[in-house]
Amino acid sequence: MFWESIVIAFEGLRANKLRSALTMLGIIIGVGAVVTLVSLGLGVQQKVQNSIASLGSNLVVIMPGASKSAGGVRSEAGSNITLSKQDAQAISKNINGVLNVVPSVSGTFQIIYGGQNWNTSVQGTTPEVLNIRDYKISEGTFFSSADDESRGRVAVLGHTVAVGLFGNSSPVGQTIRIGKAPFRVIGVLASKGQSTMGQDQDDMILVPLSTAQDRLIGQTYINSIMVQAESEQVLEKVQEDITTLLRTRHHLAAKADDDFTVRNLSAIMETMKETTGTLTLFLGGVAAISLLVGGIGIMNIMLVSVTERTREIGIRKALGATYKNILLQFLIEAIVVSVTGGLVGILIGVSGAYAISRMASLDTVVSTMAILGAFGISVLIGLFFGIYPARKAALLDPIDALRYE
Fold this sequence. Notes:
alpha+beta, 6-stranded mixed beta barrel
């Protein structure tokens, strides 16, 4: 009886092709939208995680200025003068569990080479930035501690700057002007692409910290300190020790607010995971509304089908069909419609996710769980919205059904 009911259900679909297609359309659109939008949300989540991970692993970032203040207007991050190079050196010497410490300053300058010019960010930093930020050198070399100590006029270009100024030619050994100061190019960084916020991570120039402070920007304080911990297990302890050390060095009273901000990138990543996860659930929830619309369509068509086949139901009951037989038949027909629509919707959803990835240059992650979840919901919707029409058919009185015209 079960397999016979399935065969009858497919025969019914073939007999009313247009009506069956329109009935399944809501399920197809709903499942396809859920798969596509969840894939898009997961892609955004992965891109955020990769972008934060590209900043380095096990990182603590220290910025000048308090994260909150009792009153007044908070200064822009990095604009205060509460951090110094000596703070970075003290962290490196006195804090256990620290691998690398990188102080940095930055500013925007016009870069000139021959008849070409480029506006970009120039960052003064130390050689340890290679380890913290996981930079790779695609050409030439990186500056050394000796270059920093001697305030050497050497520069390492990001990939975007190198292409913008030199095209396909090698910039290594050439002299550029940063502002009015001449610098010799000694290397080019490998491309890292765009960040989560769409910023080009390759549109920058790195120079020695002392050179940037004394010969470019003209400031004794620094804009940020990046600290790399030995492992994720000691990250919280390192953050606490840094806070204690800097409060002591800055002679802050016990009740005084910090004049610096210490951020843990692991905590930031967890926050971003929660945010993007909520976004993904929201997108999936919005798409799932169309599944409900599809379920209502199934119920509507099944009620029409019960009315059309009232006499058939009466004949089946007269020949011995039980309540369960009729209920199972119409329930299976509703589930066949939802399952068929769900399978087509999965194909459309996966295709849509890949199409968005290629055409819109957006990362998408096709999740097996999203596919199974959307398909499972479509089956449940077919079952739920098919129960009432099936029960109505099963409860028909055979005598009244045989008299129905």
